[in-house]
């Protein structure tokens, strides 16, 4: 029998390898940080900085004062949309990483991003011509709807290809996803080829992502999707934890594997599809937020999922603050900012943690 | 000895002289050939317009996808979008002259066209009255009708000068925001160094968007803060234009003076931004909409 | 002397179970009963169908024909959660791509919403990994990882001890080559743990490659060869020179100690007599 350090044989706590308290504390801190970030975002923008801008917020005053208008009609919906989109993408990323048992997975793997791009580009290019009646009927919802339909279609197709007799093969999904992404890209390319200058510009900037079109209506539309997801996702935590051991092992532990896989795919698709539909393709957040969190609190999905949502929201709002102030009055696409800010930081973290994370 | 060295020298001299004469003759012939070109491809909406205005349309065998005016031009064979030319497509029309506006591309295709033995004339882009003159003159020279060119340029210049005379005197300049596109509620505006900016200033107004170069997505907050009086937009060749309801409902514009007055001016894209023979009329029309009380010359039908 | 299969009603029953992959039959129709309170070991050459048989018995693999019954119920009709309360499976090797601590891996076996820290610590001690709770699973050796998995599997089934769950109903513990990465001391330790649970009334079914370990620790040995059970009985009855030669193609010397057979592999050809 090995001689054991008495301190290390304590039944609970971090010393014994139980990171639950640490995880709970961390998630709590993230929630506070998110609240602070939201307040900061409301106070910062090309139309003025400073906390007196926030006064209407606390006075509950929606007067026609210019500052109040900017705050209520532009900054707040934008900030909230950012929180929701960031949270959605991060949860979807964490779910994908659990499903594929790979820390490099991101929501794009199930074809959502390329499908959404195809849908959006189709609407941008053909919305003036063959699809004009549709564009007219849907009015401001035309582009988000097209993007959502595109993303969902590809995911459904992918799921159908990978599922036989009720069993979904994750490996098949991955490979078929590559193929479908290529087909979507080809379709998108053809449409781009047939587009003019103005449409090209629109396509480019849509693809880079932006929170610039945020309205209370969009916030209200995305909210139910996110709410439904937050109700379902905690139920998946145990199943996802077990799935990390392997599908057979999860089955032996009593997890209804096929149902968990199906639910994960549906939730991830819905979250990503809705997010991308409203803001264009924003990469990076979906991979990095869960990954960073895992390095801090471990892979337990009970804390990873809510933590990712919070961290994703924080990253998105922070990136948006930079995006709309750094070249004001113009706006940088937020996807670029998120990647430019986050990637070097992420690399640094990885280099420091080389021993622990083994792919 | 002396007798033996002379024939080579003389032969060399003759050869050189002959070569020079040939070159001179060829270049003269070349220009003459170009000026007499019967199969012309015009690339660039303004270039095509100028060629038609000079009465040279029968010599045109092909135009590009941005040549929407006059209507007859759209019946000519189409070589594609001016920035995405296919050399083979252009050369398949067996042109003996290519007139391309500056900015045609891609650069590789243009190189190939230049190296094919077809005269390739680049027409400089210009967003000032002088720039328009230069455009007209370059096209006219290339087509061998310099006189007609000078007449046309003078007419356009005078018309434009008459308008500018009035618009320069405007004291209360209106603030105009040019919206190129409204993608999903995100406005793309025209900053400095754009045709839109130039035409706004010619019409005696101010570009509400300052500090940005080119056509860029604009922060809704910045638009709200800059409070434009009027939104200017272009109508595409297929008739599609911005919907004022959608436009004024976005948070960016909702609380601007422009939204309050539902002040939206839509004009045909090529007419407004082409900087060709119709520009004087376009500036006049724009100024008329911006300043209804201004006493402007002429009474062209607005488009 | 241990009494083979001298225990209660069969916990697991296979009736006409066969497994086919396309035209290739991996397991011919097999009838089998596994009783609680005994340790059964499956041996056989590579590719004989041992793992396939185990997979059919655990419910991981749906048989091409026949049915598997667990405590009288057809496992095809039982939900994964129901099965998980009564049986656990130790896999051959588990690779994790995520930075779990040892404690967290073992806790995967515990039901949610309870504080099992004391139990986890006790189980880690049981598998000779006391104090390893905070270590990262990925940094452990293969043998250590295997023992962590064993602790997890035991945690899954250990509920009855606390009086909750299914109380004292017999459980089944499946072990797929549980000793493959272990040194001899730990091989013996793990198999002793298995026998302890069998003695407490569980059914233990293990696949082993080592015939000697099988003979020492099994109450009953099943020999599987080319998709069929060719021998079934007490070690002394099954491990014979004739069987080893016929099934494994090796001419070994069989000895016995206290009635338990042991297998001595033949001397390698070409070596001088005795000395190396």
Identify the notable features of this structure and list them briefly:
heterotrimer, A: 359 residues, mainly alpha, ABC transporter involved in vitamin B12 uptake, BtuC, two-stranded antiparallel ribbon, 14 helices, globular, disordered N terminus, C: 276 residues, alpha/beta, Rossmann fold, 6-stranded mixed beta sheet, 4-stranded antiparallel beta sheet, 9 helices
Sum this structure up briefly.
Chain B contains 13 helices and ten strands. With 303 residues, chain B is α/β, with parallel strands linked by helices.
By CATH, the superfamily of chain C comes out as P-loop containing nucleotide triphosphate hydrolases
The largest sheet of chain C is: 6 strands, mixed
* Mean pLDDT across every amino acid position of chain C: 87
Give the number of DSSP strands of chain C: 12
Count of extended strands of chain A: 2
CATH topology of chain A: ABC transporter involved in vitamin B12 uptake, BtuC
Q: How many domains in all of chain A?
A: 1
Strand content range of chain C: 25-35%
The greatest inter-chain interface is formed by: A-C, 44 and 46 residues
Helix coverage percent of chain A: over 70%
| Mean pLDDT across every amino acid position of chain A | 85
What is the 3D shape of chain A? globular
- The neighbouring-strand order within the major sheet of chain A is 1-2
Distance linking N and C termini of chain A = 33 Å
Indicate the CATH architecture of chain A. Answer: Orthogonal Bundle
Count of distinct structural domains of chain C: 1
Cα end-to-end separation of chain C = 38 Å
**What is the CATH level 1 assignment of chain A?**
Mainly Alpha
């Amino acid at each position: 029998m090995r001689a054991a350090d008495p301190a290390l044989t304590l039944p609970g706590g971090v010393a014994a390898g139980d990171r639950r308290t640490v995880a709970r504390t961390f998630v709590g801190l993230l929630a506070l940080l998110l609240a602070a970030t939201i307040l900061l975002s409301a106070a910062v923008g090309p139309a003025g900085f400073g906390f007196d801008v926030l006064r209407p917020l606390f006075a509950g005053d929606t007067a026609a004062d210019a500052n109040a208008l900017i705050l209520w009609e532009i900054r707040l919906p934008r900030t909230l949309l950012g929180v929701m989109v960031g949270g959605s993408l991060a949860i979807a990323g964490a779910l994908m990483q659990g499903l594929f048992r790979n820390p490099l997975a991101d929501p794009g793997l199930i074809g959502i991003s390329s499908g959404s791009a195809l849908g959006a580009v189709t609407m941008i290019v053909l919305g003036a011509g063959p699809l004009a009646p549709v564009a007219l009927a849907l009015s401001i919802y035309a582009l988000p709807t097209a993007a959502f339909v595109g993303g969902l279609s590809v995911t459904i197709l992918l799921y159908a290809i990978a599922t036989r007799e009720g069993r979904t093969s994750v490996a098949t999904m991955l490979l078929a996803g590559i193929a479908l992404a290529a087909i979507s890209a080809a379709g998108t390319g053809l449409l781009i080829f047939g587009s003019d200058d103005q449409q090209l510009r629109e396509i480019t900037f849509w693809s880079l992502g932006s929170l610039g079109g945020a309205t209370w209506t969009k916030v209200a539309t995305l909210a139910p999707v996110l709410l439904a997801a937050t109700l379902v996702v905690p139920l998946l935590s145990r199943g996802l934890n077990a799935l990390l051991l392997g599908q057979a092992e999860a089955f032996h532990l009593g997890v209804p594997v096929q149902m968990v896989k199906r639910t994960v795919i549906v939730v991830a698709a819905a979250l990503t599809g809705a997010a991308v539909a409203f803001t264009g393709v924003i990469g990076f957040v979906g991979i990095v937020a869960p990954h960073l969190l895992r390095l801090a609190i471990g892979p337990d999905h009970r804390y990873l999922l809510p933590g990712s949502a919070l961290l994703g929201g924080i990253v998105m709002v922070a990136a948006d603050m930079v995006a709309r102030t750094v070249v004001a009055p113009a706006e940088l696409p937020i996807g670029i900012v998120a990647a430019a800010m986050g990637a070097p930081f992420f690399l640094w973290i990885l280099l420091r943690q080389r021993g622990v994370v083994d792919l | 000895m002396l007798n033996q060295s002379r024939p080579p020298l003389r032969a060399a001299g003759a050869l050189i002289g002959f070569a020079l004469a040939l070159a001179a003759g060829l270049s003269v012939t070349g220009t003459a050939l170009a000026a007499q070109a019967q199969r012309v491809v015009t690339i660039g909406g303004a270039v095509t317009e100028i060629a038609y205005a000079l009465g040279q349309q029968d010599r045109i065998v092909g135009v590009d996808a941005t040549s929407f005016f006059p209507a007859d031009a759209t019946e000519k064979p189409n070589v594609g979008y001016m920035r995405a030319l296919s050399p083979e497509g252009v050369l398949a029309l067996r042109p003996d002259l290519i007139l391309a506006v500056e900015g045609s591309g891609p650069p590789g295709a243009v190189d190939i066209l230049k190296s094919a033995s077809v005269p390739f004339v680049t027409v400089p882009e210009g967003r000032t009255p002088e720039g328009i003159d230069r455009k007209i003159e370059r096209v006219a020279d290339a087509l061998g009708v310099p006189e007609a060119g000078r007449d046309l340029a003078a007419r356009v210049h005078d018309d434009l000068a008459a308008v500018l005379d009035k618009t320069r005197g405007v004291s209360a300049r209106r603030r105009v925001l040019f919206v190129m596109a409204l993608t999903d509620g995100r406005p793309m505006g025209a900053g400095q160094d754009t045709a839109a900016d130039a035409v706004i200033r010619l019409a005696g107004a101010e570009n509400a968007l300052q500090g940005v170069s080119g056509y860029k997505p604009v922060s809704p907050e910045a638009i709200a803060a800059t409070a434009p009086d009027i939104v200017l937009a272009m109508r595409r060749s297929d008739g599609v234009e911005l919907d004022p309801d959608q436009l004024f409902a976005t948070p960016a514009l909702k609380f601007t003076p422009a939204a309050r007055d539902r002040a939206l001016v839509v004009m045909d894209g090529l007419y407004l931004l082409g900087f060709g023979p119709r520009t004087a009329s376009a500036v006049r029309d724009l100024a008329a909409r911006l300043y209804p009380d201004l006493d402007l010359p002429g009474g062209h039908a607005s488009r | 002397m241990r009494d083979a299969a001298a225990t209660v009603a069969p916990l697991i029953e296979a009736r006409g179970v066969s497994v086919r992959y396309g035209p290739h039959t991996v397991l011919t129709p097999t009838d089998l009963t596994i009783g609680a309170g005994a340790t059964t070991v499956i041996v056989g050459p590579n590719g004989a169908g041992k793992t396939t048989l185990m997979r059919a018995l655990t419910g991981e693999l749906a048989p091409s024909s026949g049915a598997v019954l667990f405590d009288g119920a057809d496992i095809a009709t039982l939900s994964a959660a129901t099965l998980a309360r009564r049986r656990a499976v130790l896999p051959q090797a588990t690779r994790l791509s995520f930075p779990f601590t040892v404690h967290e891996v073992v806790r995967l076996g515990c039901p949610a919403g309870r504080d099992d820290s004391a139990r986890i610590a006790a189980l880690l001690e049981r598998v000779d990994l006391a104090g390893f709770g905070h270590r990262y699973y990925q940094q452990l050796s293969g043998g250590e990882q295997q023992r962590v998995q064993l602790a997890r599997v035991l945690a899954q089934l250990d509920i009855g001890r606390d009086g909750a769950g299914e109380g004292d109903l017999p459980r089944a513990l499946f072990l797929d080559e549980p000793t493959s990465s272990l040194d001899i001391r730990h091989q013996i330790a793990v198999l002793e743990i298995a026998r302890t649970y069998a003695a407490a009334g569980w059914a233990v079914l293990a696949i082993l490659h080592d015939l000697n370990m099988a003979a020492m620790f099994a109450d009953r040995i099943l020999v599987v060869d080319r998709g069929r059970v060719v021998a079934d009985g007490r070690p002394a009855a099954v491990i014979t020179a004739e069987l080893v030669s016929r099934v494994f193609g090796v001419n070994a010397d069989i000895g016995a100690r206290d009635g338990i057979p042991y297998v001595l592999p033949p001397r390698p050809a070409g070596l001088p007599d005795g000395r190396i």
